[in-house]
Amino acid sequence: MSFGDDGQANRLFRFDAAATLRSATEQRTITAQSGSSSPTTLRSELFVDFSVTPPKATKTVDDVPRTAAPYEIDNLRRRAALLLQQAHR
Asked: For residue 5, which of 13, 21, 24, 32 is within the disulfide window of CB 3.0 to 4.6 Å?
């Protein structure tokens, strides 16, 4: 049996004037196919409001509400920090 996948992720980070991360949105599309089935496409969206403590996350997978995992929030925070670091070079 073989299994393949293809995916795409788009992220939008919002910062305030002091370069503090305020919110982030991540949209993902993943298409998977095994040798004996039709391709399946999964769409997810994660929105994190970093202006509150702790950050508030809203996640949907194929329009069904899901709980965002702590690592997903941490990953967005790390990506935003790397983006700012590159912007200030």
From this structure: 32
- Reported pTM: 0.84
Q: How many CA atoms lie less than 13 Å away from 68 in the CB half-sphere?
A: 21
User: Which residue has 């509400």 as its token pair?
Assistant: 65
Side chain identity at residue 19, one-letter code: A
What backbone phi and psi angles, to 5 degrees, belong to 3? -145, 130
pLDDT tens digits, 14-58? 999 999 999 999 999 988 777 777 778 889 999 999 999 999 999
User: ω before 54 within 30° of 0 (cis)?
Assistant: yes
How far apart are alpha carbons 18 and 14 in whole angstroms? 11
CA distance 66 to 46: 9
Q: Give the Cα separation of 86 and 89 in Å (integer).
A: 5
